[in-house]
Here is the input.
Amino acid sequence: MVDAVVLAGSPNNGPLKECSPVRHEALIPLGAKTMVEHVVDALLQARQVDRVLIIGPAEDLSGLSFDHRTSMAPSQGGILENIEAGLKILSGAKRILLVTSDIPLLTPQAVDDFLELCGDMAGDLYYPVIEKMVVEKKFPAASRTYVKLKEGVFTGGNLFLLNPAVYKKCVENGEKIISLRKSPIGLCRMLGLKFVMKFLMRSLTLKEAEEKVCRLLGGIKGVVVISKHPEVGVDVDKPDDYELALKIIEQN
Here is the structure.
């Protein structure tokens, strides 16, 4: 079994402010529960999850009622600082499941399936992708960002299985990639012209993308897994997403 860290510190100062006036996105209500409660409930019902740690606004989270396996810690700032805070609290764990609080349609089955896809968990970082046709079959109205690769068209999920021992190495190298995100020339130099050309020609494979990211993150062992559960990738970050999630939750 693994412990999970739920990242719930994002302030509600973006598009979702139209849907609710609460101070943090994780506390936006969807039906009888808040977004973060839907996520935590799915994690606690998963067979392979033990403890759940929520990193977010302590004063607001304290008003919610959770299972005894759930604990809370105050947000430390941005997402990277909150991840680091969670890893420190759960120090000693060999693998930690990182989960964002904006995937309220998450199910216990989707969580268990992802962890099963991680196999013996010998890798440092596991990341799920979902095929476009899988998302559209279950959630035809969902709006997602997709990437075209040789094997198909994919979107990313919002679960990560991480080896805490490599986190600082990932952050150091990951920040370089983020700093170049608006510099096409800089990114091409970092990624390599061959990689960029293969991506543009849609001949880039999942394995090639996986290997490139692993090298960029300092030589960690990263693994991309293909999930059949679109719930891990359907996040709520704009009003249309909110209306879709609310409709589905009310129907269930």
